[in-house]
Amino acid sequence: MKFEKNLSFNRNIFRGYDIRGIYPQELDENIVYTIGLGFGSYIRSMGKTSCVIGHDNRISSPSLYEALQEGIRQTGIDIISLGLCTTPMYYYACIKLQVYSGVMVTASHNPKDDNGLKFAFDEKGNCKGQEIQDFLSYILQGDFFYGEGKVDSYDITPDYLELFRTNFHFGSRRVKVVIDPGNGTTSIIAKKIYEMFPIDVISINDVSDGTFPNHHPDPCVEENLAQLKKKVIEVGADVGLAFDGDGDRMGLVSNTAKFIPTDQYMIIIIRDIINQVSKKEFLYDVKCSKSLTDEIEKLGGKGICYRTGNSYTKAKVRDDDLPFGGELSGHVYFRDRWPGFDSGLYAGLRLVEILSNTSKTVDDLITGITHYYSTEEIKIASPDDRKFQVIKKIEQYVLEKGYSYLNIDGIKVLFDDGWALVRASNTGPNITVRYEAKTKNRLEEISQEFSNKIEEYNIEH
Predict the structure, then answer these.
(1) Mean pLDDT by 10 residues, the chain (461 residues)
(2) Residue ranges per domain, the chain?
(3) C-alpha Rg value of the chain to the nearest Å
(4) What's the pTM value of the predicted model, to 2 decimals?
(5) Closest CA to 237 of 187, 207, 199
(6) Which fold has domain 173-365?
(7) Preceding omega of 339 cis (within 30 degrees of 0)
(8) Could you give phi then psi for residue 9, rounded to 5 degrees?
(9) Would you state the CATH architecture of domain 373-460?
(10) Which residues belong to the active site?
């Protein structure tokens, strides 16, 4: 198929952590071909000669992948083509092959009509922030290299299975697990990995289908886990695990079908590993509950609060040489005996391993956590050209009120008895909000105050 350069695309698809847009209105084959020309030229200017590429199971991914591959190849860069794979499989291929320039065609947990590109130029990992804007500027200049690169296919599956096989130490208890790939890309490998171990596995929604017919592929939104909860109760499972569209995130349901947010999962992990690691420092993002901070301090560790965003949090955990970190959206990074990239399947198995070495249930493992009342993450529609102005006005309001706040990622207003977080989404035209407080009444007060202000500023702009 012949592709054509297109430099007149919507600039807003270049977001905070990656490229994402609606297919084919905002992101089509010619646009991705052009981005491929830009990517190949950019890494060639850095002295690179090859890159790794892969794609998820969205309906539009194979044709976008073909366009990307052709664009990169025409710049003279050699390509290692993984084909259909999860994002963690792509990450591991870069590590295994020691080729750190690469692109993954995926829109992660976004709606089925979206697609996108996660990309890295070198060992620093996924591009983010200003790096992405600089790359956009480079593409728009249209000054590309040309050449004839070659394409070699590579099957990362055997290497990936071996990485898992040698990593775990299961105990004598045989744990019953329900897994839900949500018809996403983990459908191609989840059962194969989980059945390698001495656990009983029941799977649902495990046929790869990029239309995601059974539920939206975001496992950290409780309403998407209704089928998983039902199955856990039906079969008397010890735990239920769900995975997102490209496989880098995990959602958790307990033995009583209770939704366990990622910050509570992180508490379980930190309780398990804190006496086994020399550096007792753990990273979490601004969305996480104060219960996580309280627990880390109670255990004698140090918590590091950081901005939201997979590209940022993963890099920070690596750069600060931390044994473990994560964010509320379901990305977690193990570096105690794992290469540090986020894998939902691995995160799930670490919990199963803990269960196999104890008689405790998941519900037991979260006992003793300080309780706060909190909202789920709330998304408020706000166009990309407006949302950042709303955040600025919220900051002005907070300053006028004399409130204490953090501005490492949006505005997190800190009260003695709770907090409010207001930030511009980096993955879509939304403002994302979360509130937490010691009491229900106080939660309602904080929520009302800031929701009203957001509505006011969102309309008046």
Answers:
(1) 96 94 97 98 98 98 98 98 98 98 95 97 96 98 97 98 97 98 98 98 98 96 97 98 98 98 98 98 97 97 96 97 97 98 98 98 97 94 93 98 97 97 89 97 98 92 51
(2) 11-157, 173-365, 373-460
(3) 22
(4) 0.95
(5) 199
(6) Alpha-D-Glucose-1,6-Bisphosphate; Chain A, domain 3 (3.40.120)
(7) no
(8) -85, 170
(9) 2-Layer Sandwich (3.30)
(10) 108
